[in-house]
Amino acid sequence: MSVLGRYIAAALLPFFAVLHLNSCSKGGYIAVTGYAQGGVYSVKLSLDGRQGRVRLTPEEIKSGIDSVIIAVDKSLSGYDKSSLLSRFNAGESIVPDDIFKDIYRISRHYYDETGGCFDVSAAPLFDIWGFGFTSDSLPSPIEVSNVLKNIGMGRLYDTLVLDSSGRTSSSLLLRGTVGRDTSAVAGKPELPELNFNAIAQGYTCDLVAGYLHSIGVDRMLVDIGGEIYCEGLNPSGQRWSIGLDRPEDGNNVPGQNLQGVFRAGPEPCGVVTSGNYRKYYIKDGRKYAHTIDPRTGYPVAHSLLCATVVAENATEADALATYCMVIGFEKSKEFIGSRPDLEACLVYEQDGQMKTWTSDGLGFEER
Predict the structure, then answer these.
(1) Contacts (Cβ under 8 Å, ≥6 apart) of 262
(2) Is there a smaller number of Cβ atoms within 10 Å at the N or the C end of the chain?
(3) If you ran DSSP here, which 8-state letter would residue 77 be given?
(4) Domain that holds residue 143
């Protein structure tokens, strides 16, 4: 049984602007909104599915969506001190739930696929730069070096190891001397902490979509903090129309100033943008953005302003948009070109001008 299936059995802002949804009552569509993960969520869905009309009321559907989001927060929130993630990072022995184990497994996959550019064990790096769960900033080179010694999913087991009680802790996840230099762990090293922010919202979109599938919904757009999962057609019978915000510093109102528009669906897909124009600070005339390269320990400094990735699901789109922001424009363009299963829009700076590159199948209309 899937992670979502087990959860339902047990339990039973952003880069995008969604356009042209002024008539959500057409085609049996309803809109459900609420709060999620420090922001808001918006779900548009049709109650008329291929297998018949959805039997639940809008209120019951919203309750189901909220239950999924609450379950994710109880497992993965780095701000809720009682969550499994917070307790794990504090060194406590925990019983990982299906969500924790599943997102850890997925994150390990992308760590390997990206050569360490996507690394959920890099939480201390984000903390010392002021983009994590603390407010520090501008660490010294020595601080960065010390943190780098103690991060990397390569230092963790590929699967969560449980003791006889079914519990796990950070100490049980240390790879130790298996496949690595024993001198690197001499003197009781600090253990990696985890931060799933680079993938959690996309993952939550997919879980919400899974819940909606379970009740018979097959036309939907799920938007959680700007991360999107969509499938089917919109209330007007067209592909979903999605606007990409112009990646200018200070452009903090979604939909107010667009770089362009493209369409997604009817095939299921995730659409996620990662960029450096909303989460940053400036000190001594220099901009420090929230995208940090886990391999170097420093915020990235390249021409890529934002990367939008369209993938089979929102989890993958989220992880790979982060990956693109780490490796920069040229390598991202090469990567997307090597993956016929992906579409992307890359906005970058060249000679002081903002330019756009898109993959052939995206159909992007620049504004």
Answers:
(1) 241, 242, 244, 345, 358, 362, 363, 364, 365
(2) N
(3) -
(4) 84-185
Tens digit of each residue's pLDDT (9 = 90 or more) over 253-310 = 666 678 889 999 999 999 999 987 666 556 666 666 778 999 999 999 889 999 999 9
- Indicate the residue type of 263: R
| Dist CA 354 CA 124 (whole Å) | 33
**CA dihedral in degrees (317, 323, 329, 331; nearest 10)?**
-110
Q: Is residue 351 part of a domain?
A: no
pLDDT beyond 90 at 133: no
Residue from 326, 277, 333 nearest 305 by CA: 277
* Residue at 113 is within a domain: yes
Range with the poorest average pLDDT among 128-142, 219-233, 275-289: 275-289
**pTM of this structure:** 0.86
The answer to whether residue 98 is domain-embedded is yes
List, for residues 191-217, the tens digit of each pLDDT value: 678 999 999 999 999 999 999 999 999
Torsion of Cα atoms, 123 then 128 then 131 then 136, to 10°: 140
**19: Cβ–Cβ under 8 A, 6 or more apart, which residues?**
241, 242, 243, 255, 261
Helices and strands per DSSP (H, E), number in the chain:
10, 18
Does residue 240 form part of some domain?
A: no
